[in-house]
Design goal:
The longest helix is centred in the last third of the chain and has 30 residues, at 311-340. The protein has 13 helices and nine strands. The protein is globular. Helix content is 50%, strand content 14%.
């Protein structure tokens, strides 16, 4: 993703991400003739009902401009049922290991999600997704339980040795040779485009040019009063790619900043920890202003080779190797659990049967 493209986008919240997880498995609608209590699959005798999938579908497609066509719908149905099968397998595994999430853990997670909102704001977000508090608690319980199993069965068994790090570095030494300076940036962005909703923690969205200018200037004033940059970004930034992680844009090469002209030069002139003045946001290939932003320089990496004794290099390698092993072991773990389970996927059978007619 190019640096310039981040100057044209708009923001996301932690609750929205979780609500998306709540409906991850549900992207399909029921046929009118379907029985809500009909089992679309079973896992060791435990039914996955049509009604459950219908609920997920309605949440996921509530704001879709058009419903999926027949083949798309069937494909999405299969994905959902597979996800629900995986979840049920893990829940049954958790029960055997006595790793089910407790009520106290779920209440803690729920309170964390509620914290940035008033009761009215939180209830409205649930209502917009056709979810109840109980639906959300059930999904939190499932997510927390699955993570407990993965932590015990997978993550706790991953060990990255010094030799692993050394071997990786020697094989990928060129990756740690910066050919030009890199700037670690964060930003708070506001757009002047009208929108019915936005997904930062405060659901804050400027609807016009005057509103956008007023909002960004107030945020700049707040920052000058030493308010936390990351917190303000999560609460008010309108960039969906960065708001949820405090506005962090990652590292960007000096050449990308130079392409931005005067705004890029002003960013390069910053010292680590400093923030820019209010900068205009323009669409690629256009001079028209679509919003404003404030950029903070978190840190700068000079060009040159990074050696293996650099703690940041070691941490980077360790994280990469851990993620790779976690993904591999997780995939193998799910397959092994599938092999041990009695699974019936009636939806898949019906799709094949109907296709052959």
């Amino acid at each position: 993703m190019r640096f310039r493209s981040l100057f044209t986008r708009s923001s996301a919240s932690a609750l929205t991400v979780l609500l998306a997880l709540c409906v991850l498995a549900g992207v399909w609608g029921c046929r009118k003739s379907g029985d809500a209590d009909e089992a679309l699959a079973t896992v060791n005798g435990k039914k996955i009902l049509r009604s459950e999938v219908d609920k997920y579908y309605k949440n996921q497609t509530a704001n879709s401009p058009a419903q999926p066509e027949a083949e798309q719908s069937d494909s999405l149905k299969l994905q959902i049922v597979r996800q629900l099968i995986d979840d049920e397998i893990m829940m049954q595994r958790a029960a055997k290991l006595n790793l089910n999430a407790t009520d106290e853990e779920i209440d803690t997670k729920l309170n964390e999600l509620k914290a940035p909102y008033t009761k009215e704001e939180f209830d409205k977000r649930l209502k917009d997704k056709n979810l109840t508090v109980e639906d959300l608690k059930n999904e939190l319980r499932r997510n927390e339980t699955v993570q407990k199993v993965l932590n015990k069965e997978i993550n706790s068994k991953i060990n990255i040795s010094d030799k692993d790090i050394s071997d990786y570095y020697n094989a990928h030494k060129a990756e740690f040779n910066l050919i030009e300076p890199q700037y670690h940036l964060a930003h708070i962005m506001v757009t002047n485009q009208p929108s019915p909703s936005v997904r930062n923690l405060k659901n804050s969205k400027a609807q016009s040019e005057p509103e956008a200018r007023k909002k960004i200037e107030q945020l700049h004033t707040n920052l000058e009063s030493n308010e936390d940059f990351a917190t303000l970004a999560m609460n008010y930034s309108e960039d969906p790619d960065t708001a949820s992680n405090g506005g962090d844009m990652g590292f960007w090469p000096e050449s990308a900043l130079k392409q931005l002209g005067a705004p890029g030069q002003s960013i390069m002139n910053l010292r680590p920890g400093q923030m820019s003045i209010v900068l205009p946001v323009t669409a690629p290939g256009s001079k028209s202003v679509s919003g404003y932003q404030i950029v903070k320089l978190i840190g700068k990496e000079e060009a040159g080779q990074r050696e293996i004794n650099d703690p940041r290099v070691q941490q980077n390698i360790r994280e990469q190797l851990r993620q790779r092993r976690e993904q591999l072991l997780k995939a193998a773990y799910y397959e092994a659990l599938h092999n041990d389970a009695r699974i019936e996927n009636y939806l898949a059978e019906n799709i094949l049967k109907n296709t052959s007619k």
